[in-house]
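for the writeup, i need someone to sanity check this before i put it in the appendix. the sequnce is what the collaborator sent (i think, or maybe the updated version? ugh). structure was predicted straight from it, no edits. if anything looks off just tell me and ill rerun, i have time this weekend
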Amino acid sequence: MATLVLTPEQQIQRLNSILNKVEVLQKLPLNRLITAPNTKSWNVLEVLEHLRIAYSLYDKKIENALVGSPSSNLDSWSFKARPWQRFLIEGQRPKGKKRPFKIKTLKRFEPLLDDKSLSEEASDSIFENFFTAYQLLKSSIVESRQKQMKHRPFASAIGPVVRFYLPEAFEFLICHAERHLVQIEEILASQK
């Protein structure tokens, strides 16, 4: 498997792209945001809520890792992802406009929305919460530029079997969001 070298610049660029795409989604009519392709699939708002939930399980871990990381004299960092973490990151990354395979969502990551009662206000709140979370992720990546990245790794949201350094966690979350943006494109395409 090829080496995966991570930099904050490329992560910020991809995160900006994600935020821009979600801004476009926010302008869609509510009926497009709450219509799922079938009863076993999520709608757009449920996907966004899932992404917010997933990020929330990393928020404090990232904050603590940043506080515990010593400052660096460099302007930025470059980080080579470790093999197991690279495998997991690449498993999340979409391949072009396709998700390579479906992944079963653990219960604690599932959005608990009643799509029958979703209103404009609820939609606005979901978008606001998403933007708050992912702007915080962006701020964390920016802050990390002046930090040393070889701090103590922390357990992923699925438990201690997967431990991330900050750059690996950032990349995992970004790839996870990119994967679900492909899912959102599939949801919207099914409505035509």
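The chain has a mean pLDDT of 90. The two ends are 39 Å apart (CA to CA).
thx in advance!!
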